[in-house]
Design a protein that fits this description.
Two copies of one chain form a homodimer. Helices cover 20% and strands 27% of the residues of chain A. In chain A, α1 crosses α5. The interface between A and B is large, with 80 and 80 residues. Chains A, B: Its cofactor is Mo-molybdopterin.
Chain lengths: 538, 538
């Protein structure tokens, strides 16, 4: 980060850093006494924790001195109509509390959002940055533009000099080694792999669970995602399998082996500090479905997406695709890092604050079949001529792919198949976009629904309730939007619309009463006579 | 109204009258040129319209000069968190526009709310006043206290001197006549009738329709009622049948005959002005189910409820129970007053702004079977020992009565019968209160549901959607509340609750994360081993 941008962060301090900390101890804590420093030259914003257990203990005690605010209440009350929707005050304060080496990370990270993402992103959480693109643009192209690709970060964004960059391969490999970017890009050492892969956050469509049944407030806020926490890119780099081979292969191959990834970002959980750490099973690496990528759609990775190097685990929850990779660690079992052990767990619907334990949730790795309607939007009032055009995405993880997409205009009783011509290309690891002209005769409020079948005949749960879970993950139930249908092929409707047009009064929204009377007295009386009056004859 | 209270209205002007009118004409309209005056001495706030067709025409033209604001948008956005919830700005302005004789009516009416109703009423609409009592008090007694009885007014509240009060009986009776209060109370002329009757507004529980499917914005705002637009009182007065007999009986008895009631309040519809007017069929009068009442639970009618005399039509929608009665008019067919002809219509679910006509809706007279859960409330998080206590009301109109009430803890699959001991007394025309200790084993979000069966085996539609209608009337579907169940008879739950208690940290709301870790590492690893690890063995 240059001095110039540091200056800008100073300006931003008062706006977004919320540096005022309510301190519980009588003596104000002195963050500089911690002596925290960036780990390496050229790795701005990178603090190493996992190599220094004593430091972690010290920080745990130190953090107890602060009275950080509770999780914001946005589940039992309506969401704020702001963008960013949520600010991440607590996480900004965690960083601020650590002193000079960390305090500017939230503000600096926000500058990358402004620089690298579309200006009209929906900022679900300002820090750590979580954002999704506007719905119409998400399904405009089957390969998502880099600036529109959703971001779900778990900490700040480090700025790493590629020339100074390397990662270490450690643990149960025969020859642990340090690999530089230059080596990795050397095609005489490593063949290139380039694959179209959809990455999806398990929080996609969480807002539906929140609306119906609020859940875990979480340390890092269960962000209220819409349908846009998903994106597709062509990722280019080297298969992790080749890198492990380059390190002499596994010491003790077994089905239990996991490959752990550590990132340069800082993660907090229950008052403790960590580097981001997750893992994927060796089986997944073995079939070349774990990529170390430096290119996203033919361009260098944006900083916000993990520059200079990130992991891409095909068909898995996005959380495993570690950014700003610092270490690869082959271990006997899944990572004990909190993101792997304590987060992204899928609980039975009777689990909640009163009885949740990490072991009782299963770990979300492969993503299930799901889909979403991106147009029309929920609560839209659609004037049409007997057909409503619907558009959206459909996806299945774990190497499965969408083979059929179906839409319903009646809440899920009658299903229409999306014509195969209207489905985008098939990939083993990517979504398919779809559109359909859904025949709709009925007027009034209708529930438009979509569901996808994947090649293993998996389809989606019926209702949000069917798959509600305490941590509000994987809202993969049939996606439903309510629309008010106004069918212009019906004479009475056509006449009424014409009348509004003639008067120059907008017809929508439907909740605004029109100025004209609905029926004149003469016609009313004639109609009532035809109907035999209001009451029986005798 | 005394000078004293008029003074107070002046103070209130700026707070609640919103007298600023955007005027479309170049010349500001002069309301005093209309020369409107109160109709009768001792009848403060009573303007007569129906006897003066020329005046009505004049007002229609005059009202066109104003650019009154549109209906407030509260259906497609969340309701304001204020009490009053809605203000009724347009209706205040309509009155203001009419000049001196009408401009203070909104402020004066509000003084009656403050004087006659409980201070903690939920003011759904400030003017015309619409309000309901807090939920717990509504089901505290099977006879509703006068100050807690809901109010759904359609205009301002006149203040009528009982000594000066009379009403006229006109139309198809053999001897039209004027009857004073003194005559009506003369037991040598009219025998008394005293009956326990539930009055219900067809808007009860409208908020559920609004939440799921917004509808007609309406002239007078389809107020966002909860479950409290219902109340029960012992009404005392004279059967209308006796009064008609006193007037020589019907001129031309026929099944089609209706008896029209006119009130002293002013009603607006589509830019025209009216006196409140509705009707009930002669058949209903004939069986002594239409009462002219001056007593409510042994006390004189409160002003806000129609003092000195109102109609009470048993088992019908409250709208027919005309307040501040000025005239009774026997007519050949239902009233053509806008409240009867153009309001309180029940449409097919495909009818909306694009095709609604008055004749295509049927008129709401008899109220159907319905019920509501008044405790627990929607979104409550209930800590219990295997049983959740539910309380509420059940009602059926048209002379039917609740014979069975059933509750479900699983969204309506398994139903428990409310023990007959827990149902309040049976009346032909009143609700029954109920309570049940519902056996609940499950934890997490549950849908508690209630339904009622009446003596004709009618029961309620299943979902809000089953009976959605454009004017958002009669939300009589099975009432559902979502509660998060925390069952303390389960050891894991009991232990967690104890832990919170010991730490002195409140357990609720569930969306606030606890500070403690969910599971220690040792127990996690032991559990995972018992479960055979995260991944398959081979």
């Amino acid at each position: 980060m240059t001095n110039g941008s540091l200056k800008k962060t100073t300006v931003l301090d008062t706006e977004i850093l919320h540096p005022s900390l309510a301190i519980r101890t009588k003596e104000p804590p002195n963050p500089e006494a911690l002596g925290l420093q960036e780990e390496l030259p050229g790795w701005h914003g990178y603090l190493e924790w996992e190599k220094y257990p004593e430091r972690k203990k010290e920080i745990k005690e130190y953090m107890k001195k602060f009275d950080f605010p509770g999780a914001p209440e946005f589940q039992l009350v309506p969401l704020p109509k702001t963008n960013p929707i949520l600010e991440g005050v607590r996480w900004k304060q965690y960083h601020y509390a650590l002193g000079k080496a960390a305090r500017d990370i939230p503000a600096e990270s926000w500058l990358f959002v402004e620089k690298e993402k579309s200006p009209d992103m929906i900022h679900v959480l300002q820090f750590p940055y979580n954002g999704e693109p506007p719905r119409d643009r998400l399904v405009a192209t089957s390969i998502t533009r880099n600036e529109d690709h959703f971001v779900r970060n778990h900490g700040g964004i480090p700025e790493i000099d590629e020339e100074k960059y390397f990662f270490d391969v450690e643990g149960l490999v025969n020859n642990p080694r340090r690999i530089t970017m230059r080596e990795l890009k050397d095609e005489t050492l490593f063949p290139r792999q380039s694959t179209v892969v959809t990455i999806q956050c398990s929080g996609t469509r969480r807002i539906e669970q929140i609306h119906e049944y609020p859940g875990d407030g979480d340390e890092l806020i269960n962000a209220p995602w819409g349908e846009g926490a998903i994106g597709t890119a062509r990722w280019t780099g080297v298969s992790l399998k080749k890198v492990i081979k380059y390190c002499g292969g596994l010491k003790d191959p077994s089905a239990a082996n996991h490959v752990e990834f550590l990132g340069a970002d800082t993660y907090f959980k229950k008052g403790e500090v960590y580097n981001y750490a997750v893992s994927a099973p060796w089986r997944k690496v073995k079939i070349n479905e774990v990529l170390l990528a430096w290119e996203m759609n033919g361009k260098p990775l944006p900083k916000i997406h993990g520059f200079p190097l990130r992991v891409v685990v095909f068909g898995y929850i996005g959380a495993r695709s570690c950014k700003w990779l610092t270490r690869i660690n082959v271990i006997a079992n899944p990572s004990m890092g909190p993101v792997q052990q304590k987060e992204y767990l899928y609980y039975n619907s009777q689990v909640g604050k009163q009885n949740a334990s990490y072991s009782s949730g299963f770990s979300i790795q492969d993503m299930p079949v799901s889909s979403a309607i991106m147009s029309p939007l929920d609560m839209d009032q659609v004037i049409h001529d007997g057909k409503i055009k619907m558009r959206g995405w459909a996806y299945s993880g774990g190497g499965h792919w969408p083979v059929r997409v179906e839409a319903s205009g009646d809440g899920g009783s009658v299903w229409y198949e999306v014509p195969y011509q209207n489905l985008s290309e098939k990939y083993f690891h990517a979504w398919r976009l779809w559109e359909i002209e859904l025949p709709v005769d009925a007027e009034g409020w209708l529930e438009l629904v979509v569901r996808c079948w994947d090649n293993a005949l998996n389809t989606q749960p019926t209702y949000v309730r069917s798959a509600w879970n305490w941590d509000l993950h994987v809202t993969s139930s049939c996606h439903r939007v309510k629309v008010f249908s106004i069918n212009r092929t019906r004479p009475k409707t056509a006449a009424k619309l014409k009348m509004f047009e003639k008067m120059g009064v907008p017809f929508l929204p439907i909740t605004q009463p029109g100025e004209m009377d609905l029926e004149d007295e003469e016609s009313y009386l004639r109609e009532m006579e035809a109907r035999g009056g209001r009451d029986p004859v005798e």
